[in-house]
Design goal:
By secondary structure, the protein is α/β, with parallel strands linked by helices. The chain has a domain at about 1-130 and about 170-200: Rossmann fold (3-Layer(aba) Sandwich), CATH 3.40.50.720. The protein is built from twelve helices and 17 strands. The structure holds nicotinamide-adenine-dinucleotide (NAD).
Length: about 350
């Protein structure tokens, strides 16, 4: 990576965007970081405050409005981490708002990248994979989690999880569709407008500075509910908390994106599944156990048998493709993720209480 790199981060006051800004500011002492955000996510102001630095410039604006891109300085890389990232977005709220925040923002950003010859890195989601097909995969039930049955003949599925060749046919939630629409256009801009791009389909990212809420950011939400004594429920799949996800520490994601930018030609115009993988997978019930061990707080958790719109029984990411190309693999386990997030909430309890409570 060139030392005086200039990076523009859309959604730079969000969890991932602010963590990337902080990472690059410290790793590259001659870098310049521009962050763009409309501060619509509760808690983004707190993330902005922690980023105070001479080499950081904050530009406030709604990126679904093209004029927000007027007069921006040219940069080497544009990272798109601006979105409304909840899988429930658009279901009980405005779809147009979702499209504006998750799709139009991306199109405006790509147009700007084409005009200024800037590379484009997109934070997509594992939610682009179709819900019904994922939920039809045969499974078994252990005392603490659901497990995919082994050796099923399904393209893109192996014991290591879901890879990039899994089918894309089927509904995927309005959120998933907004992100997939962006992906499709990024691909076309690559072909017809020479956009240099990388698409990272991330599973659950977690760690300090994630302003978790009931519909997004489960590790923070689980910990905060224990710390601030809020009601918690296991929702769906009989209400036993056996649904499974893999989680990735935000630091591992920052290291990966640094590697990708530094080795752009090896990863240009490609899509990657990015996640914690089988070793970093856990069910809600297992998350509760980890939270109990780390916090020494026990909270009664009620059951809600019916699943929420968009829920998935199991998702585990297979990140072999990026591992083969760049040698990247997660380094921080579920315990480290929960522990680091716990410490952050405790250290900032007063400030976070009104946001996470
Ligand atoms: N956190 C995860 O687990 C996860 C997993 C998969 C994919 N992603 C993707 O990563 C990206 C970042 O997610 P995050 O967890 O940091 O979310 P976040 O909500 O913490 O951050 C998003 C930021 O974008 C800003 N924003 C939203 N709409 C905007 C607009 N129209 N104009 C300007 N700013 C706007 C928000 O104010 C917020 O600060 C998203 O695109 C999301 O889809 C996140």
């Amino acid at each position: 990576m060139k030392q005086n790199i200039k990076i523009m981060i859309a959604g730079g006051c969000g969890f991932i965007g602010s963590s990337l800004a902080n990472f690059f500011l410290h790793k590259y002492p001659n870098s310049k970081i521009y962050i763009l955000d409309n501060l619509m996510r509760l808690g983004s102001e707190i993330n902005l405050k922690r980023l105070h630095n001479d080499r950081l410039i904050f530009l406030k604006g709604d990126l679904s409005n093209k004029t927000s891109f007027n007069n921006l300085p040219s940069c080497d890389v544009f990272i798109d981490a601006a979105a409304d990232p909840s899988v429930l977005s658009g279901i009980d709220s405005s779809v147009l708002k979702l499209i504006n925040n998750n799709f139009i923002t991306t199109i405006n950003a790509i147009e700007w990248c084409i005009k200024t010859k800037c590379k484009f890195l997109f934070l997509s989601t594992s939610r682009v994979y179709p819900i019904k097909i994922l939920d039809e995969i045969s499974y078994t039930e252990s005392p603490t989690r659901f497990e995919w049955m082994k050796k099923q003949n399904i393209k893109g599925l192996s014991d290591e999880g879901i890879n990039e060749s899994f089918t894309m046919n089927g509904y995927r939630s309005l959120y998933g569709s907004s992100k997939y629409s962006s992906e499709l256009f990024i691909h076309e801009y690559g072909k017809y407008k020479n956009l240099e791009y990388i698409i990272n389909r991330c599973s659950m990212i977690a760690g300090p500075w994630q302003m978790g809420k009931i519909d997004q950011g489960v590790v923070t939400h689980w910990l905060a509910s224990h710390i601030f004594k809020k009601e918690l429920r296991y929702i769906g799949y009989s209400g036993n908390g056996k649904q499974v996800r893999d989680i990735l520490h935000i630091n591992d994601l920052c290291n990966l994106i640094d590697l990708q930018i530094s080795n752009w030609s090896k990863v240009d115009s490609q899509i990657f599944n990015i996640g914690g993988g089988r070793r970093n997978s856990l069910s809600l019930m297992e998350l509760t156990k980890l939270v109990n061990q780390i916090t020494d707080i026990h909270l009664p958790i009620s059951k809600e048998e019916n699943k929420r719109n968009g829920d998935i029984r199991i998702f585990i990411t297979n990140s072999k493709k990026i591992n083969n190309i760049l040698g990247w693999a997660p380094t921080l386990n579920t315990k480290a993720i929960v522990n680091d997030t716990f410490r952050w909430i405790i250290d900032n309890k007063k400030e976070l209480e009104s946001i996470l409570k």
